[in-house]
Specification:
The protein is an alpha/beta fold. The chain has one domain: Rossmann fold, CATH 3.40.50.150. The protein is about 35% helix and about 20% strand. The protein has 8 helices and 7 strands; from the N terminus they run ααβαβαββαβααβαβ. It has a 7-stranded mixed sheet with strand order 3-2-1-4-5-7-6, sandwiched between helices. The longest helix has 18 residues.
Amino acid sequence: MSFDETYFSTHTYADINFRKYTMYWWSNRFYAMLARRAGKRGGRLLEIGCGLGHLVGQLEDTFKTFGMDVNHWAVDQSRAVAPRSGLQTASAQDLPFAHSVFNVVIIKHIVEHLPDPAKAIREIGRVTEKDGTLILSTPNLESRLKPWKGERWIGYQDPTHISMKPPREWLSMIRAAGFELQRVFSDGFWDVPYIRFVPRFLQKLLFGSLGGLQAVSGWVFLPMTWGESIMVIARKS
């Protein structure tokens, strides 16, 4: 499967019209909060795999923003959403930037799509300045509720997830790229339903409340195994 318009209309970005209160909107708001807290105002920020531009567009008021994606169509769409950002089509495994030029780099649910994610993370280390911040997320093979879903688990539903790895491997790659881990946490249990015959809305309240609180408040508190994604904040040494 290629990352074309069809992909963006059937997977994470199923709501291309970007209605404000989708889970996707809350997710981007949370990442924006993390970036503003970790980075310096006026610094250069790069989002790798910027998709339709909604996250990098939120950050234009704080950073000098740059976005890239492998999909020409997505980059074209993102220009209306992030008009002040430097946007281009490029590969995460071969970043078209000089050494040590970014204060913040965000790579949100991209590494699992790459044939060589270790190379991409090394490239991030190369372009991140000393004391700069990496914010990374990817499906969490050690999610406590993953066994409840089995083959129906969300991380297995996208055929382009070709590099699914346990958290220890991702953390090892990040350290090897010259980063020191600051926070390792998760995004909560949102892949409902987990239990048969229990109404979906009740399961959202039961399982999703802590992740929702974290996303709304910006307060990072969920342990690494308490969610469908592993999330990492790391500082370039």
